[in-house]
Amino acid sequence: MSRTRPINCIIPPYILDKLLESPDNDVRQAALDTLLTTARLRGERMVRASLAGATATAGDGRRTIFDCDEGVTLRRATLVRTEDGPESADTAVDRAFDGLGLTRDFYREVFRRNSIDDNGMRLDGYVHFDVQYNNAFWDGRQMIFGDGDGKEFGNLTGSLDVIAHELTHGVTESTAGLEYHNQSGALNESMSDVFGSLVKQWSLKQRAEDADWKIGAEVWTPGIGGDALRSLKEPGQAYDNPQFGRDPQPDRMSKFMHLPDTPRGDSGGVHFNSGIPNKAFYLAAVGIGGFAWEGAGHVWYDALRASTADASFQDFADTTFQKAGELFGAGSPEQSAVLAAWAGVEIQISGVPKARAFAVSGNGRVGREDGIAALSRQLGELNAKVTALAKDLATMKATR
After folding, report:
1. pLDDT-based confidence at residue 367 (cuts at 50, 70, 90)
2. Choice among 165, 169, 181, 271 that is catalytic
3. Fold of 178-369
4. Which fold has domain 1-177?
């Protein structure tokens, strides 16, 4: 069944719910206002999506930034920067402008994609949305940034991977159209985390093993260093503090969270269970090594384009394995790395014998042995030990 595309927000509802429990009245009020505004916007999106012809405007990926001046009506926002205009005196304006541009350029240079929809879609950004709005979101046509409450969140334009995360929801919507609930919804969220992280790595020219693999570290809890909204490298360990508790994301299927497909249930746990495919991507990226966008990034992008709207984790894992074979060759180290990555989160690729054994070396690269070779090696080692023991016994007898 077709489902209406949602407002895609970077801050998951379970974090805003935690803020409602804060002893700080200002923090509680900011969280409540954010939840109420997001609910209203979701309703407006559903109405707009039902109208015929509500499509994005083509414009060769040109950027335009507007200032909402703490208002919530986009049509009243003031134009403050264009593609050909000068820099602004407002840091938020320039960060939004640069973030949109870096994301656009990443998709163009790495995947030859013409803007978010591959048809030259204009990139419109709105900054200073609402008062102390603790979120940033993609609504299907434009990017909106809140300023944060200054305590638990900084200005949401301050994180490149947050901007790229949100814009990638547009890429997903115009490719696989992954339905935003249950496993397909968790894949939707994971795609945004994956490519959000890749845009940051690409901009810094970081190798997979050197990246921090964190999402939103620059804007999340300004007073606490080292934490982030999510971690692809270590789902479940992005943060741990008295205010929010511990990051609840699972990192493998045995920890999968079965939640109701309702707003209060995070649409079946889309922001929770995205940790599982996130971890698989991280394992594939470090298994292949080098620049992640050149190896695992291409595999995941091709798999996204080949997926259906209701794809499950198993479906997507199988597709990445297939695409890795097409891109790098069947049985290649890259395909083996993808196979090992999904095994690392307890997902077995369909049609691959379970007897095939995988070992990950200390530097993260993947080596492969089939079951017979592994058994032969183990028998050889055992035989060597038996032979050595026999020699020891013979020596002991000779010395008596």
Report:
1. very low
2. 271
3. Neutral Protease; domain 2 (1.10.390)
4. Elastase; domain 1 (3.10.170)
For the chain, what are the domain ranges? 1-177, 178-369
Say how many residues make up the chain. 400
Annotated catalytic, 334? no
Q: Which residue's entry shows tokens 């966008």?
A: 293
Buried b (16+ CB within 10 A) or exposed e, 169-201: bbbbbbbbbbbbbbbbbbbbbbbbbbbbbbbbb
Amino acid code (one letter) for 385: K
Catalytic residue among 128, 152, 166, 173: 166
Average pLDDT, the chain: 87
For 20-29, the pLDDT digits (tens) are: 998 989 889 9
Q: At what angle do helices 296-306 and 313-328 cross, to 10 degrees?
A: 120
Does residue 187 contact residue 274 with C-beta atoms inside 8 Å?
A: yes
Q: Indicate the pTM of the whole model.
A: 0.85
List, for residues 65-77, the tens digit of each pLDDT value: 999 999 999 999 9
Active site residue 152: no
Supply the pLDDT for residue 294.
98
Please check the confidence at residue 380 and state whether its pLDDT lies above 80.
no
